[in-house]
Amino acid sequence: MESETKHALMLFAVQKVRELYSRADGKGAILVLEPKDDTEARQIVESLPLAQLGMLSFDIYGTKPCRGFVANL
Q1: Tens of pLDDT along 10-30?
Q2: Do residues 38 and 60 make contact, with C-beta atoms less than 8 angstroms apart?
Q3: Which of 2, 28, 42, 64 is most buried, judging by how many CB atoms fall within 10 Å of its CB?
């Protein structure tokens, strides 16, 4: 896990990972990424050591600003 942590911190330092959380149920992590597109998001996650070892599964969800929030700024 040390290599996974070091790699995640490096991705944070180069602003590819914006936020990193442990799930409350202990079953994994949630990463908020800063990719330019879905392809880069997949490349970022696939660069993690556990992903390269085939020990990590992940889902990628795109996001956009909340209409109600943005409209009231």
Answers
A1: 999 999 999 999 999 999 999
A2: yes
A3: 42
